[in-house]
Amino acid sequence: MIKVENLYKKFGKNQVLDGLDLQIGKGGIIAVLGPNGSGKTTLIKCILGMVIPDKGSIEVMDTPIRRTWKYRSEINYMPQIADFPGNVRVRELFDMIRDLRQRPDRQEELVELFGLEPHMQKRLSTLSGGTKQKVNIVLTFMFDCPLLILDEPTTGLDPAALIRLKRLIREEHSRGKTILITSHIMEFVAEIADEVIYLLEGRIYFQGSVEELKKMTKQKNLEHAIAALTTTTADA
Amino acid sequence: MLKILKYSFYDLMRSRWSYVYFLFYLLLGFVLLFLNNDVSKAVITLMNIIIVLVPLIGTIFGIMYCYNSKEFTELLLAQPIPRRSIFLGQYLGVAGSLTFSLVFGLGIPFVIYGLFKSNAIFDFTLLLVTGAFLTMIFTALAFNIAISNENRIKGFGYAVLLWLFMAVIYDGLFLISLILFEEYPLDNFSLVATLLNPVDLSRTLILLKLDISALLGYTGAVFKQFFGTNAGLVISALMLLMWTVLPVWRIVFVAKRKDF
Amino acid sequence: MKATFYFLIFSFATSVFAQNPGRIEICPTCEVKTLKDGIEAGMKGDTLLIREGIYKEFNIVVNKPLILQGEPGSVIDGEDRGEILRIVSDSVTVDGLTIRNVGTSYMTDWAAIRVVKSRHYRIQNVTLENLFFGIYLERSDHGVVVNNRILGDATDEYNSGNGIQLWYSKHVDVEGNHVQGVRDGIYLEFADEVRIADNVSTKNLRYGLHFMFSNNDIYTGNTFEDNGAGVAVMFSRNIRMVGNTFRKNWGSASFGLLLKEINDAEISGNTFEENTIGINIDGSNRVVYSDNDFIKNGWAVKVLGACYTNTFSRNNFLYNSFDISYNSKMNDNIFDGNYWSEYTGYDLDKDGVGDVPYRPVKLFSYIVNRTPETIILLRSLFMDIIDFSEKVSPVFTPDNLVDANPMMKKQQ
């Protein structure tokens, strides 16, 4: 699904991606983890074409993405901070994205699922953070795409919405989609992810299943496993 | 691109500031015409306003829009749309809505006043066209500043400085250098210096209509060639076009290479 | 009484004995085929009726009081060989002829019609084409030149002449003529008591109207448009200039009206529109300027050199790039009760007069005088700021040059 080779990116003096290689197959829920500043968001943005790498190549579904944009119609991206143009009403935002994407969607169903109907005529600037995140989720899941990238999807969600989100993710998974998630909530990752990628200093430090990670670090749960991973690297 | 343009335009057309801007021009037009009852005087006053205020508004609006629509831009960047379309669309949306406010804000009172029967229609049209150009140019320059400066305070500062420089400081330096080097032939220098500042360029373009009698008083051959023939009009118009196209091209160029 | 009686007898005699009494017909197929023959045959007071046709003649001398009456289509063609009609007798009338192809000479000023030392002449409805000098009045008083059309095609000053020239001629009425494409439209030298009214002088190489050493003249209701420079009045006294229009005289040394060494003149009710300089005043004193309109000129009034006791009142200054320009800090002229379109003051007591005095001289006009290229900064915000500060506290402009009673409304 995604093939990254020898990826380098520097912001000023800060080498964020340092020769990163990565292969992600089709299907599965992959959690991208790593300490702050390890390059998670940069990697995702590189895949989305929002950040242009200094060196290296990225292929999405077997096509190099350099200087192209059409491949993005096969990706649903959920950004970390759900901030939208304030003057626009929720319905208009949906209409606009649908107009831009021009493909079948299931907006109605998702709006109902997250109880957004009362907010459809409101301007986005008047919504609470949680509601905005729900809008964000609807926008992400309303199109049928083989690749989903979710950046901190749980931020600001109430438990009920969180459960619905998880259900949605699993549902997409069962349809054979590839889902890339970053999150700080280890519980959430442990519960949902098939595979974990651990980024450190701009490289892949670990890639494998949650079980493999636990085995490697000899820890019982993911949170501790990650913590152990972090300390061992700090020691090393 | 047209879709982005459409959404930016609608978005702006709904914002309070567009209304304020539109109403300001509407009011200005009515006050100038109906309190003064004198089209010629109104055109002169308008010229002063257009060459000072339009660049300022274009700059401020442009920079504000860029920083405020950051989230919108990022939302769009993840969509299957080329970057060129996103930025050109947004730029045209802002420049378009500003031009719209300017042209209709001033146009309506003039039409009601009976402009079409007045012989000032050419002067007035020239004013509006120059105003539109200045809007496009300064909005584009503001976009350039915003796209190259992540820090909004800094960006805002640069934008205001840019306006101040183009509208006032440049002419001050220009005047000082003319007086300092008055023994030398200054024809070419002053014409080039004029072409290099879009505010001066627009002013000259309007002068060609309003003050041709005075401009022809100067003896220099190059001046005469420039002001006395259509060459001046054509060159000025071409330069205005350049001033619009180059910054817009740079927006696209930088946007394509920028990380978000 | 006796003279009249003899004259009647004489007239009776000619009417009896001449073939066509008092009137001689000239046409290419008539018995009299040329003007010269006609003049020779004519008696004092006769009318020569010139029928349609082209008469190739020059150096025609009219030496007796005759009426030369041209029919439409009667053309005298000089074939560029010299002067055409020369009037040396009193009481000659030339009417309705077309005269063309006057010879150009660098030695003598050949004219289409020259009047020499004669009085009571009348030249009317004549059309002159392709000429050197047009109508040349030389030491000839008490004449009338009306409704003529003079259409030259001059391109260089050195080999072109003037349309209507008065030299040492007094009490002449020049009225309703149209002069274009010559060097000076109308030129007066040592011509006093002349009245020039309702003429149109346009597209001439040098001046539309030019006075030299001529006093007590009046010109009124004329239009001077698109000439090298409009009207030049030089070294003359007591000229009245009333109700004329000066338009579109453009160029680096161009003006609507030039006054050089003029004293005691009156300039009123004129319109100066779109000239590079409306009035250029050089060394002129005691001139009264009133009720004129200065519209869209580069400089409405440019004062050079020493000018004393001139008065400007009740004029309209409308949208000129510069209203008044001075080249010195001295001012002895009075500006009072004019309307200035740039005036931004207020009128709290509603008496129609602004409560704040107006300073018509901008600092910028000094800068432009000094460095002409700076004209390109006209109407820039920077210049406006400088002008404003100068208005608040004058440093370079004459302190007393103010209109203390600026009008709030344009005067009709």
UniProtKB/TrEMBL annotation, chain A:
PANTHER family reported in the protein's UniProt record: ABC TRANSPORTER ATP-BINDING PROTEIN ALBC-RELATED (PTHR42939:SF1)
Organism whose genome encodes this protein: Muriicola marianensis
Designated name of the protein: ABC transporter ATP-binding protein
Pfam families referenced in this protein's UniProt entry, alphabetically: ABC_tran (PF00005)
Top-level taxon of origin: Bacteria
InterPro entries: AAA+_ATPase, ABC_transporter-like_ATP-bd, ABC_Transporter_VariousFunc, P-loop_NTPase
GO molecular function: ATP binding
Keyword terms: ATP-binding, Nucleotide-binding, Transport
ABC transporter domain boundaries: 2-226
Keyword Transmembrane in record: no
TrEMBL record, chain B:
Keyword Transmembrane carried by entry: yes
Keywords linked to the UniProt accession: Membrane, Transmembrane, Transmembrane helix
Domain of life of the native organism: Bacteria
Keyword flag Transmembrane helix: yes
Residues passing through the membrane, by range: 20-36, 42-67, 88-112, 124-147, 159-181, 233-252
Name of the protein this chain belongs to: ABC transporter permease
Organism of provenance: Muriicola marianensis
TrEMBL record, chain C:
Secretion signal, residue range per the UniProt entry: 1-18
Organism superkingdom: Bacteria
Keyword annotations: Signal
Matching InterPro entries: Carb-bd_sugar_hydrolysis-dom (IPR006633), NosD_copper_fam (IPR026464), NosD_dom (IPR007742), Para_beta_helix_rpt-2 (IPR022441), PbH1 (IPR006626), Pectin_lyas_fold (IPR012334), Pectin_lyase_fold/virulence (IPR011050)
ATP-binding found in the keyword field: no
SMART domains registered for this protein in UniProt: CASH (SM00722), PbH1 (SM00710)
Span of domain Carbohydrate-binding/sugar hydrolysis: 50-189, 218-356
Name of the protein: Carbohydrate-binding/sugar hydrolysis domain-containing protein
Organism: Muriicola marianensis
